[in-house]
Amino acid sequence: MASQDIPGHIHKTLEDPLPGSPDPPEQLQSSETTTNCKQAQSTTSLPPGLEYLRQLDQIIIHQQVELLQVILGTETCSKYEIKNHMGQRVYFAVEENGCFDRNFCSPLRSFTIRITDNTGQEVITVNRPLRCNSCWFPCYLQELEIQSPPGTTVGYVIQKWDPFLPKFTIRNESNEDVLKIIGPYATCGCLGDVDFEVKSLNETSTIGKISKYWSGFVNNIFTNTANFGIQVPVDLDVKIKAVMIGACFLIDLMFFENSLDGL
């Protein structure tokens, strides 16, 4: 699917450079010294590579079109661009798994997704084991482990059993419940966006959403590549923002892989 503008962007000026981008001009560095000093203490505890997520309240995930997959109809390793609200690439994600998993277990396949910054440094690792994917089996449901840096767990995405609605729990590095994600009764997006709401643990308030953006009939007939948007509070813990990115990948594979937006 060709890249396109995503609706609902919030236009604002970015104060920090993209991760891996060249250093700012000398005349700007001196004016930013005070700001950087104030932020130093709060950023030292952040996982390396996640500092840029501190200023984002909207994250766009665009799956790249694989020409071989379009021509031959075979499953290839998925690749994603992770962008800010202005369309600038922040991270790049590549799925790793075996050919058997991709072609015979999809969309249940196990995988490892490695997310790198613009310098090629791996900053987030998403691990998905092979598990069940049915509302009729309340045990052994889907889960993800998100690491940042690789080898250090920062959170989990756990599917919760429900006979009608897609439900997930977001957990922190201590395996404590933090947020919930609740999807719609039907995930068909042939006529519009599909929203998975991010809610508080008691489900009384909605603080954000993960959206599958509708991109038009023609694009979806020829490819099943995806455009997703994540909207969360800007002051949300960056570790939880990284977990939300992992949740977006899981939602894509569970509800939109090998389909025309869920049909």
Question: Which descriptors apply to this entry?
Answer:
globular; disordered N terminus; 263 residues; disordered C terminus; 5 helices; alpha+beta
What is the averaged pLDDT score? 76
Report on the biggest sheet.
Answer: 12 strands, antiparallel, barrel
Number of distinct helices? 5
Which shape, going by the Cα principal axes? globular
Oligomer category: single chain
* Beta strand %: 25-35%
Structural class: alpha+beta
Strand order of the largest sheet: 1-2-3-4-5-6-7-8-9-10-11-12
Terminal Cα span:
17 Å
Number of distinct beta strands: 12
Order of helices and strands: HEHEEHEEEEEEEEHEH
Radius of gyration equals 18 Å
- Unreliable parts: 1-15, 27-43, 216-224, 259-263
- Residues in helix, %: 10-25%
